[in-house]
Design a protein that fits this description.
2 helices, single chain, globular, three-stranded antiparallel beta sheet, alpha+beta
């Protein structure tokens, strides 16, 4: 059974988002994946994990929907690839929060994610 979390308003600052370990977020999401959508030049860049901060969402979108629902930068590039991340393998997850100027939900991974959090060691094409 999934646990429910309050979704922070889009105006809530990053530093004040709830901070939780990945296993707690996994329970909240009913063991669903977090999705990290990619620009074309990012394909292959994170298949060994990453220590860079990342924004992720629990919601699947078509390439044409990603930019508007997630208010992504580089809006001329639909996101046709995504990494599927297992939240229980990510040490620190902040959120959730409604996306500012979008309509989706986002989580912040301030420390990135280890390779072991990848559901597959490659990107999945979105259609």
């Amino acid at each position: 059974m999934a646990h429910h979390a309050t979704i922070a308003a889009s105006s809530v600052l990053n530093g004040t988002l709830p901070r939780r370990p990945g296993p707690d977020v996994a329970k909240e999401l009913g063991d669903r994946y977090l999705l990290r959508y990619l620009l074309p030049h990012q394909v292959g860049a994170y298949t060994s994990g990453s220590t860079d901060p990342h924004w992720v969402t629990p919601t699947a979108y078509s390439p044409e929907e990603t930019v508007s629902w997630l208010a992504l930068p580089a809006p001329r590039f639909p996101r046709s690839y995504v990494l599927l991340l297992k939240p229980d393998g990510i040490p620190s997850i902040w959120g959730p929060r409604w996306v500012r100027f979008g309509g989706g939900i986002e989580y912040y991974l301030p420390l990135g994610f280890p390779a072991t959090a990848l559901a597959f060691p490659w990107e999945v094409e979105v259609r």
